[in-house]
Amino acid sequence: QVQFVESGGGLVEPGGSLRLSCAASGSISKIYRMGWYRQAPGKQRELVAHISNGGIVNYADSVKGRFTISRDNAKNMVYLQMNSLNYEDTAVYYCNAWPPINDNPGFGSWGQGTQVTVSS
Asked: How far apart are CA 34 and CA 51, in angstroms?
């Protein structure tokens, strides 16, 4: 039921940085784990990172050490700081609960996502 609106994407050069924002239409306090996902053309959507209410984080190996996920339950916001971007980071980025399965009550509709393009 909660809707998510992603923003902050854009065109950046390799080595550049972006900060993505995810605004939820309702409270995320009850969503135990929130995550960022991405989908590149011709590939399935994959998990980038997730964070619990207690601040426990998990990252895909491909972004570990470069990306930082955070959340602000009071503002119903989730963020993804992306540094040292490379060509393989090019994708549409989405936020949603983790895990993205119907049995998870926090899992909502997929938003439009925000495009991140890394190009020289």
From this structure: 5
pLDDT tens-place string over residues 56-106:
999 999 999 999 999 999 999 999 999 999 999 999 999 999 999 999 999
Considering Cα of 108, then 10, then 15, then 55, what sign does the dihedral take? negative
Radius of gyration, CA atoms only, the chain: 13
What residues form DSSP beta bridges with 51?
34, 57
pLDDT per residue as tens digits for the range 14-54: 999 999 999 999 999 999 999 999 999 999 999 999 999 99
The residue with tokens 């609960």 is 97
DSSP state of 111: -
Contact 96, 3 (CB under 8 A): no
**What is the spatial distance between Cα 82 and Cα 36, in angstroms, rounded to a whole number?**
12
Q: Are 93 and 78 in contact (CB under 8 A)?
A: no
CB-based contact 8:21 (threshold 8 Å)? yes
20 touches 34 (CB < 8 A): no
